[in-house]
Amino acid sequence: MKEIRWHGRGGQGGFTASRLLGIAASVHGGKHALAFPSFGPERRGAPVLAFTKIDDTKIRDRSEVQESDFVVVMDETLITPEMRKGVREGACILINTENTAPYESVFEGCKIIGLDATALAMEILGRPITNTAMYGALAAASGLVSLDAAMASIRTEMKPSLAEKNVKIVAKAYETVKTLA
Amino acid sequence: MKTNKIFISGDEAAAYGVKLCRPHVIAAYPITPQTITVERLSEMVEKGEMDGEYMHVESEHSAISVCMGASSVGARTFTASSSQGLLYMAEGLHYASGGRYPIVMMNANRSVALPWSIYGDHRDSLSLLDCGWIQVYVEDAQEALDMMIQAYRIAEHKDVLTPMMVNLDGFILTHTYELVEIPDQQKVDEFLPAFVTPNKMSFEEPKNLAFSSKPDDNTEFKYQQNQAVLKSIDVIKEVDQEFEATFGRKYHDMVEEYRCEDAEVVLVAIGSVCGTVRVVVDKLREEGMKVGLLKIRFMRPFPEQEVKDLAKRVKAIGVIDKDISFGYEGTVYTNVNSAISKVENYVYKSNFIGGLGGRDITKAEIEDMFHKLYAGLDKSREEKVEFFSLNVETNE
């Protein structure tokens, strides 16, 4: 089983991204997935967590995610040394940033990939909503879902007007990270 | 065969299940973590995707009262609640079962105040075991959807006519998204016949309903009510078999045994934690330990026969309770223990209390429970009721 932890702020779409990944893996990828937010009240702007579990067989384990294989950070101002907890040695960390250097000590022993998701979102959406860019980055870095499945999940979940722009973002983020890797 | 699988939450799965059953009247008051279920149902009614009437009420007490009134004229009814809301309904719950109104309810299991908590445990519904409702606990979103369909068949059966509560763990199931197959409407229509009740309030056949009784006949009414709930055991089995034949999924009636065939040590649980126990059972089996899980699905009627059958075969039984009956033990344990006491062989028993107010139950904790049960076998541990993973020092 692969476990993914999403960090964002309320309103940035972290939970939506966790669900999109679940849809891509299960509906379009033939695997099994669970997606869930950190349980409890939600507030716009407050730090929020979301999780996706992906496996080839039915996921029975309903306990909390304790050892993430991938961590996606949509807002780099959320990063503190605490974030290293519950992250597997050798895990892959994807950060929305222009420069990953300041975070290397926090995520020692992990692979760090940076993507300027805000710039990408501003360019295509005209708004700093970075969830789909980071989703595309994760798809590329992890190989958990194909680009086709990722794009299909957006068309499944979003209204057509919004979907096409986000499909474009996912494709571009995917391509950018594939080139890096 | 073409399947319609979508990625939805447990709350949404419950709403889809209810929609497929075409209730005439839905009356519910929103409460976390049940809210999404009633929001979806009200949207489905608003958009004309279902024909039922969604009645807005100012409280859970009114919600259950509306359902009783509608049920008495032959309507199929649905309500949903959780925690404080369920407790606010409590008076009506006894009324509904005594009146033999086969209302179906979804309950999102949540802790009970004080301390105030919106998170999950089983203290809400287990405190209402004696209200005369059939209670089932599900393990995932698919089972939640499927049990809505089965619930109407069971509750409305002419020999049962008893309301039924479908319990799903707050947040762990209600707010987790997973792949769920939506059954075909035509198949559900064939599986679930129209609701017909002999207790119908009508001008054509006037009769006294929801009446008073005196000491000379009250016991007989309660006897009949008890017989009806006991009778539901047969109906539950029959419905599950037919459900499998129609939809290809089965839930093993009253309980599901997981790797219990040759087990020495078994954990008993209800609800979503059963899934995590399965994973631990698989791991320990690989290490050569003969362990298993008994997933209790129905708490009322209680699977006494199934627990006895298991107790005859095993050496130790542990019960996980996400509840505590203060001053005694967990309620699931009390019920399991009563059944175990009716077999002749000795079984080492222990009660593990935890997961209260939404606390995670980890695989390591479950593994530890199995080891403690083994310790009981060589007499190095007493039988006891233990709160596991307490964050405070105790003198025990």
TrEMBL record, chain A:
Gene3D superfamilies: Pyruvate-ferredoxin oxidoreductase, PFOR, domain III
Entry annotated with the keyword Oxidoreductase: yes
Keywords: Oxidoreductase, Pyruvate
InterPro entries found in the cross-reference section: Oxidoreductase_gamma_subunit, PorC_KorC, Pyrv/ketoisovalerate_OxRed_cat, Pyrv_flavodox_OxRed_cen
Membrane-spanning segments: none
PANTHER family (UniProt xref): PYRUVATE SYNTHASE SUBUNIT PORC
Keyword Calcium found: no
GO molecular function, one term: oxidoreductase activity, acting on the aldehyde or oxo group of donors, iron-sulfur protein as acceptor
Top-rank taxon, per record: Bacteria
Alphabetized Pfam families for the sequence: POR
NCBIfam families attached to this UniProt entry: PorC_KorC
Protein name: Pyruvate ferredoxin oxidoreductase
Domain (Pyruvate/ketoisovalerate oxidoreductase catalytic): residue spans on this chain: 10-175
TrEMBL record, chain B:
Residues of the Pyruvate:ferredoxin oxidoreductase core domain: 263-366
A Pfam family: POR_N
Any one Gene Ontology molecular-function term assigned to this protein's record: oxidoreductase activity, acting on the aldehyde or oxo group of donors
InterPro entries documented for this protein: PFOR_II, Pyruvate:ferred/Flavod_OxRd, Pyrv_Fd/Flavodoxin_OxRdtase_N, THDP-binding, Transketo_C/PFOR_II
A Gene Ontology BP annotation from the UniProt entry: response to oxidative stress
Alphabetized UniProt keyword annotations: Oxidoreductase, Pyruvate
Domain annotation Pyruvate flavodoxin/ferredoxin oxidoreductase pyrimidine binding: ranges: 17-239
This protein's name: Pyruvate ferredoxin oxidoreductase
Species annotation: Ancylomarina longa
